[in-house]
């Protein structure tokens, strides 16, 4: 083994490559952040009709009472979840918290849609 090769200096091309990758990474993160912008409020719809909106920057809970049943929409730390639902499948309750514009939690048995909007 030749020690000279191990101590080879980083070439100009290597530096350009590293800088290029860094710029691409930062640009990529920037674009990602732009696309993934946090929503401003959550719209609660029953059968396609908006019944209530809640601001995402304020912790709150709203009980959606219908003949079909109850869902409680909870806003906490900018994320929205559905709790205390009495629907048979509980899919809305099991859904992970949503916080980005366009994300939804849907409760089919109750025709309930919780959607983040900007
Ligand atoms: Zn449900």
TrEMBL record:
InterPro entries: NusG_2_sf
CDD domains: Lin0431_like
Membrane-traversing stretches: 15-32
UniProt keyword Transmembrane helix, yes or no: yes
Keywords annotated in UniProt: Membrane, Transmembrane, Transmembrane helix
Protein name: NusG domain II-containing protein
Species: Coprococcus hominis (ex Arizal et al. 2022)
